[in-house]
Amino acid sequence: MTAAWAGVGAAYARSFASLCEGTVPLLLDRTPDGDHLDVGCGAGALARAAAGRGRRVLAVDSDPEMVALAREATVGLGVRVSQAALPTLAIASGSADAVTANFVVNHVPDPWAAVAELARVVRPGGRLAVTSWTSAPTAQAVLFRRAFEASGARPVPGQRLPEHLDYDRSADGLVDLLAGGGLRVVDGGEHRWDWHVDEQALLTGIRGGVGAVGQTYLAQNEEVRRRFEGELHVLAAGLDADPQGRVVLPSVAAYAVAAA
What we know:
One of its GO terms (biological process) is methylation. The structure is a single chain. The protein is α/β, with parallel strands linked by helices. It has one domain (3-259): Vaccinia Virus protein VP39 (Rossmann fold, 3-Layer(aba) Sandwich), CATH 3.40.50. Helices cover 37% and strands 23% of the residues. The radius of gyration is 18 Å and the shape is globular.
């Protein structure tokens, strides 16, 4: 994953990790039992769920803080967690029945090399399942953009990959990415779910520098940050909420599943 994610593990675990958990059941349902490799495991939710289904799980992440969080989340479940980064995994070829990468290929510096490495470790007859954010604005991105605009925030230049390394950020583009890794794609499309999140959890992630919203927030002065938080509160109050008072944000991501 990119350097922007280094050192934000604790803030991520208390905020945006619950967003990324929305695709976990999909990835597990689309992959077989047996030896499961979860690449870019983050705070460990997918690894924990895979172990709960009786799978033998190896979870890896490039960030040592995420590795520590994943180990904590999977204590007593027999999950092995180690530090490793795409596109070079010190894992034997064809060693996993199931390989998952949940919101990983959209963060690595070379998605094509990353997918080729993921394909290498899938056992013949196994499955690789990945997810990616698309180029379509998410409900949370719209919320954050409106709060930044209302607070007079200074825009921060986005970080885009060189054209020859990038892929089309769509369901079709993700399918093409896996097919380019020499895999036979058997399923793909968009997955939709609702993210239920407490406003304070959102602020924890943003203040902690998680993702583009966190990096933009940290780039502002204290006055703009204060105005942003006030605008976010007002805007969030106008959105749907669940019985626990959490904001409900409709979410959508691309997914693709391929056979080795």
